[in-house]
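[agent] plan:
  1. take the single chain provided in the ticket
  2. run structure prediction with default settings
  3. attach structure tokens to the ticket
  4. add a short note for the reviewer (M.T.)
[agent] executing step 1
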Amino acid sequence: MFVYSVKTSKAKIAALVIAIAAVAVAIVLIIGRGGEPTAANDSVISYKASNAEERAAFLSQFGWKISEDPVEISEVIIPQDFDAGYVEYAEMNKAQGLDLEPYKGVRAKRWTYNILNYPGLEELTGSVQANLLIYDGRVIGGDICSLEQNGFIHGFDFPESAVPQTTSAPQSAVAVTEQTTAGATGE
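[agent] step 2 finished; step 3 output follows
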């Protein structure tokens, strides 16, 4: 048997304990965030969206209530080169922690749901919709938009007041390449 003794002071032991604690805190912070972008309130947001429950849960994190069945499911290609409208759309998504740049040229799915609780428009079911751009079971972008003439488009954050100022949605926000059945309930 081999015995090794080390002579140390209380200060060295305290320094070692502090260093170990700092490493443990750093690991917890890194793992706890999971590399996910965060919302404005700095809470961790889950971007999982591989099934209907995960898509509904994603939107509910922001306070949205949606219709159970999607209004539309479309295959889309994120443009390789962003025009002016798509640049605005990408900037809006970047402001909410979602970067579309890495997905240029990628084929994704767009899931569209009716919003049931938009402040001031609850009675107009179908006039406000949530669009989720999903790639590999994960939300990569999207918006909340009004279908009314002179409607609006904004990120996922729930508005603090009723209907926002009128803005126009970019016409080329998502290039549709193939559309599936409207109102489909498939995954």
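[agent] step 4 note for reviewer: The first strand starts at residue 72 and ends at 77.
[agent] ticket updated
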